[in-house]
């Protein structure tokens, strides 16, 4: 009898996962899929109403989900969430940094507040969150960290100079930390969505959306679930030997070696 190892299922029972930006778009699809696969999921988001609604819906289906209010740009808030996770679960197995934000505009129009927001939401916030939970993962000698960056961070995107810098920084940080985490069985990977059909993309002017469609070889936007599927895979036992990698999910808009 031939054993097909690759056919093993992804296992999330007994795993505690925290997903930032879990109230909307790619983050919400990630939350839903991981909860359906058996994880105990903390939906960490600044949007209280949408986060509570998501948690209530999942709990009504008998799944393990809790909303925690988190502003990833606020270190004190991160510390409170860490205390809550420790007090209620005593561990964190999976951390997905999905929350992020950007806006297309010429570089010269970026003011101090805009630059600070883009850098903290997409780079320093995720770094601080990992800084809070990495020691716990080292202690347990296991962990999966998935950082949602962007193709902008791989190739540089027109009108998104600061966002590209922040996401590029997140990619480099993920690779470097993967080297450090490997000896503790902590995997660190980055997922790079291309233009994906979420409220974030839809907040951009129609002319940019049309321009994106023209350069995507598959001639359609990604669905948030398609990106979430890769995040869930990277966070699963099926990706135990994958670390320091960058995976684009983008209909072929970039093909980075
Ligand atoms: P979205 O706007 O649908 O969801 C983002 C979520 O993050 C929201 O629930 C929002 O409330 C939350 N959030 C915002 N600020 C926060 C904060 N300070 N603290 C905690 N949560 C906060 O966006 P999305 O399209 O699903 O984006 C998810 C990730 O994918 C982001 O990192 C984004 O940069 C990246 N991305 C998206 C696209 C795209 O086209 N949608 C492309 C490339 C990369």
UniProtKB/TrEMBL annotation:
Which Gene3D superfamilies does the UniProt record give? NAD(P)-binding Rossmann-like Domain (3.40.50.720)
Instruction: Name the GO terms of the biological process aspect.
Output: monocarboxylic acid metabolic process
Please report a single Pfam family linked to this protein.
Answer: adh_short_C2
- The family this protein is said to belong to: Belongs to the short-chain dehydrogenases/reductases (SDR) family.
- Which protein are we looking at? 3-oxoacyl-acyl-carrier protein reductase
Organism the protein comes from? Paramagnetospirillum magnetotacticum MS-1
